[in-house]
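Researcher: Go.
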Amino acid sequence: MFERLPTGRRTVAVMVEPTDAELAAAQESGFDAYQIHFRHDHPYERIQLWSRLLSSKKLWLAPRLPPEIDVDPKWLPLAGTVLLDTFHASGFGGSGMTGDWEKFQRHQASHTQTKWILAGGLSPDNVGEALRASAARCVDVNSGVELAPGIKDHAKIGALAVAIHRERTREQPAAAPSVSP
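Model: Structure:
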């Protein structure tokens, strides 16, 4: 599939708990980054291996975190980027459901050296609210801009860009005037 991708753009291989052979094949293709989805209880040694093989700058960790589980801080030095998607018991992302934006905000605020990406159920209709609630600087959007699975809607992509721009440029509420005694 790599050969069919447009040239001159950053490419990201999206994988779920890849085997050594799958990771080697993706590496040989020359992707710019590797987004690896994995169970929160996946062996730490395996995550370390991904980091060594790919380099932490190219590794994007996408842990599948049940609501009561936080990102393990020991993962953070292994990757330059962490993507938080909505948890659902039957799969790795792609549910179209929104996630815990406050949890995302808490992690991003606590670990400022890491690049964070918010994913999960984002669309032109809710991305502004998601940005306000999460303070996300990067978002991953898929089904929220599709006509049907795998078919992007140019109008929805445009509306998403407008919604993000509107949120990023909206005036912040004026501070209440101070009152002197």
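Model: The chain has a mean pLDDT of 89.
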